[in-house]
């Protein structure tokens, strides 16, 4: 399941303890990029493995109406 954040305040890093947020600012850009690439690869694998019947789910975004996902 993919969950969309409803805004910046819903982002996980906004709820992280200050020491975790500070440590993220000291990480090299290459580490952030590697994390992003890893997450994208895992998401891509999950999407590829999703059975065809699961693509007919109805979802509602931030504004109605529902639409097929």
Largest sheet: 2 strands, antiparallel
Residues in β-strands, percent:
5-15%
Low-confidence stretches: 1-9
Q: Order of strands in the sheet with the most strands?
A: 1-2
Instruction: Give the overall shape, derived from the CA principal axes.
Output: elongated
The SS-based structural class is mainly alpha
**Average residue-wise pLDDT:** 77
Counted by DSSP, the helix tally is 2
Helix content: 40-55%
Distance between the termini: 11 Å
Q: How many individual β-strands?
A: 2
Rg of Cα set: 16 Å
What string gives the helices and strands in order?
HHEE
Summarize the structure in words:
This protein is mainly α. The chain has a domain at about 15-50. The protein has two helices and two strands, in the order H-H-E-E. It has helices at about 20-25, 30-50, and strands spanning about 60, 65-69. It has a two-stranded antiparallel sheet. It starts with 17 loop residues before the first helix and ends with a strand.
Q: Concise description?
A:
This protein is mainly α and 69 residues long.
Spell out the blueprint of helices and strands:
Elements: H1 18-26, H2 29-49, E1 58-59, E2 67-68
Labels describing this entry:
single chain, 69 residues, mainly alpha, two-stranded antiparallel sheet
């Amino acid at each position: 399941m993919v969950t969309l954040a409803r805004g910046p305040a819903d982002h996980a890093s906004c709820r992280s303890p200050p020491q975790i947020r500070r440590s993220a600012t000291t990480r090299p850009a290459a580490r952030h990029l590697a994390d992003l690439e890893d997450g994208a690869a895992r998401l891509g694998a999950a999407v590829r493995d999703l059975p065809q019947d699961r693509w007919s789910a109805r979802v509602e975004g931030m504004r109605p109406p529902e639409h097929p996902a």
